[in-house]
Amino acid sequence: MTALRPLPEAGERLPPLEIGPFDAAALIRYAQVSGDDNPLHLDDALAARIGFPAPPVHGMKLLAAFEPMLRAWRGDLVVAQLGGTFVQPVLRGDKVTLTGRVLRASPEEGVFVRLYAHGSSRAPAIMADATLRQPSSGGNG
Amino acid sequence: MTAGPAAAPLAETPRDPAPIAMRVAVDARRAADFAREIGADPHTVSLAYPALWLTEPAVRAAVTRICEEADAVPVHEAQRFAYDKPLAIGAVYDLVVTLRREAKPPRLVLEASLTTPEGAPVGRCETVLRIVPRAGLPKGGA
Predict the structure, then answer these.
(1) Residue A83 and residue B41: Cβ atoms within 8 Å?
(2) Phi/psi at B52 (nearest 5 deg)?
(3) pLDDT tens digits along A90-129
């Protein structure tokens, strides 16, 4: 029987993860796989008419990328909740940096992590959070 | 599961559509393809996998109809997933999607609950779409 790793402490920072840049082929592929074929993400002319210099990357693709980051950090815990707000678009061709920090942790309530995705601008593209729990207390493993 | 402060119901708009119920399954190939696209292990089922079910024709049609009635386009504003138990490849679930309009600011909120066919809770997800009037978009916008 393996002893459980101690929970992280509040304030611990997750190793940052850089993803992208995503090119047009990557966005087409994501649209095909996910079913989210909103032309805004795929059509340069449409994006330009909205005021974007390039099509924005699907927000869901970026939000979902927090999960492998969390698993790489603490694979002994399961991610029970993940959610976020799409603050501003990440444009095709941008690199994205995912960061996170533990805000609180307890055996009863799990580990609450604040997450950010930053594109090329200073303001975050996504403000997110996740709750991780020890396997015996449920969640998506 | 919440996504920011509650907004007032849109009383003057048409009634919200009836909930959409579907039996869904985690397809191994789609799960692996989706996992690869988000940089995850293709042998696992992503937390975000239910997003694929929310693009099913019945849900898309309801969203499209509401947006067309408002002469507006949907902009994905927020998303949340919460689980009681993990999704499993090949497993079958019952998904019920409720669509709710909010007025200030105009939003469409999709609340989805996921249970086993026996009724045991599995998870929930919430999609918040900002409803942006076409009139407010730059000339020639979406």
Answers:
(1) no
(2) -65, -35
(3) 999 999 999 999 999 999 999 999 999 999 888 999 999 9
- Measured in angstroms, the CA of A135 and the nearest CA of chain B are apart by 10
For chain B, give every domain's residue range. 20-134
Residue with the two structure tokens 């993400």 = A41
Token pair for A46? 């449409």
In whole angstroms, what is the distance from residue B23 CA to residue B31 CA? 17
Domains defined for chain A, CATH in brackets: 17-22+58-137 (3.10.129.10)
**Among partner residues A67, A81, A84, which is closest to B46 by beta-carbon distance?**
A67
Q: Count CA atoms closer than 13 A to B129's CA, side-chain side.
A: 21
Q: CB-based contact (8 Å) between B76 and chain A?
A: yes
Q: Which fold has domain B20-134?
A: Thiol Ester Dehydrase; Chain A (3.10.129)
If we measure between CA atoms, which residue out of A95, A89, A81, A75 comes closest to residue A23? A95
On chain A, the residues whose CB falls within 8 A of the CB of B38 are: 61, 64-65, 67-68
> Across the interface, do B48 and A60 touch by the CB < 8 Å criterion?
yes
8 Å CB contact of A49 and B85: no
ipTM score: 0.93
